[in-house]
Structure formats: C-alpha cells, structure tokens
Amino acid sequence: MSKLLYIVDDDRKIRELLRTYLEKNNFRVRVAADGETFLEEFRASANDISLVILDIMLPGQDGFSVCRTLRSESDVPVIMLTANADETDRVVGLELGADDYLSKPFSPRELLARVKAVQRRYSVAEDTEPAGRYYRFKTFWLDSLERTLRADDSDWQTLSGADYDLLLFFLRHAGEVVPRSHLMVHTRGRDMGPFDRYLDVQISRLRQRLGDDGKSPRLIKTVRGEGYVFSAEVSRHRGLPHDTP
C-alpha cells in the first residue's frame, strides 16, 4: 500500500496542487485547512500517517503550535512550509522538532524530493545485527527499534526523526571526525547552502537532549575547520541489564 501523507495548509489551491501531484507519484494524501482539524484526525489514524507537510501560517493554532503538540505525542516526520524569507521561522521549526523545511514559493517536484529524502532517512529496517538493537554510551541507552533514548536516571524519551538519525549516525561513526558536509548530506540528502543553519540547529538540539554543554561539550565535539567527532565509547547490546527499567 502507498504511503499516506497529510498536508496542512489553509491555501486551498496549494492543498489541491500538492494533493494532485503527490497522488500522481503514488502517495495517498489527506488534507486539512487548519491545525485543530488535522490534530483531531491525526489522533484517530496516527499509525497510518507516514509524514506531515505543515504550513506555519494557519488560522487558529499556527504551525509552530501544531508541531509542538505533534512532538509531544508522536515522532511522525514533519516538513514545515514557510512564506517568511527570514530564517527565524526555519530555525524555530527545527528547534521544535521538524525534520526539514521548505520556503514558499517552491515547486511540487522539490517537495517530492524532500518527502522521499525524509522517508528514506526515517525508514527503519529490523535490526538483525548480532551486536543487538541497543547502543550504550556514557550513561545513555538508545533503542534503535523504538527510537527511544534514556539516561540511567531517567525515563525513555521518544526522539524525533531528525534527532534519532543524527544521533545514530554519530554512534555508528564514534571517534571519527565527520565533515559538516557529510552530516548535511546524510541528514538532509544534500549539501548545505552558505547561510543554511539546519545542521547547527540539529547539533544544538541533540546536545541539549544529551545534556552536552555547547560551550564545553563532552560528547559531540567541534573540530574547528573540519566538522564534529563523537568522543564517547559506544557498545552494542542485544538486551538491557536486568536493573535497567
């Protein structure tokens, strides 16, 4: 069965244009003109929805509020749409947990490419490696099937697609200096523009998740002029210790 996308935009012409184009490219599409309608329908069928395309400027709850609510309930991938040329909207959206953003006006073809890139990064294969589904580093556990993270003294937290993808990449390349351009291609499927702050925001968000001080990080360290290195030792485990809730 084809993937189900949800478009939330108060512009009827944009909704119908994107619905028609995406359906021609083998996606199933639902649409809503406001955040309240979308959230009500999402909660009734969350398991069927693979990605949300969310406009920032909505009547009633704006896209930021809807994204914040989504992130408190779900890790469904989100691409935010903004008509604001200023980068503030994009940065705020990413800080709230959006996986990507697109500035209006844009072509349906570009949106399709973003949708496919996000879904490729987000798709989860069964982790059948002998080393196991759990990653252990410092005082943290990452469950690579459930996409959840916990410290030894806290509860499990669901990660957004962008946070999970970036953390997993670091864990799989621990000890390696990873160029910014490589991280950008991995997390967004393309290199960054000269003023693109996407990666900076995502690194900052992940450091906050890990309690890693950006001024003096212990885990994700900046290698000036080169990129980043994940400095902790990482091990893989099939299961959790009996004393780990």
Structural summary, described in words:
Residues 4-119 form the Response regulatory domain. One of its GO terms (cellular component) is cytosol. InterPro entries: CheY-like_superfamily (IPR011006), OmpR/PhoB-type_DNA-bd (IPR001867), Sig_transdc_resp-reg_C-effctor (IPR016032), Sig_transdc_resp-reg_receiver (IPR001789), WalR-like (IPR039420), WH-like_DNA-bd_sf (IPR036388). Keywords: DNA-binding, Phosphoprotein, Transcription, Transcription regulation, Two-component regulatory system. It comes from Natronospirillum operosum. It is a single chain. This protein is an alpha/beta fold. It has two domains: 4-122, Response regulator (Rossmann fold, 3-Layer(aba) Sandwich), CATH 3.40.50; 134-237, Orthogonal Bundle (Arc Repressor Mutant, subunit A). The chain is 37% helix and 22% strand. It is built from eight helices and 13 strands. The strands form three sheets. A five-stranded parallel β-sheet has the order 2-1-3-4-5, with helices on both faces. It has a five-stranded antiparallel β-sheet with strand order 9-8-7-6-13, with helices on one face. Helix 4 runs parallel beside helix 8 (198-209) and helix 6 (161-172) crosses helix 8. The longest helix has 15 residues, at 108-122. The two termini are 36 Å apart.
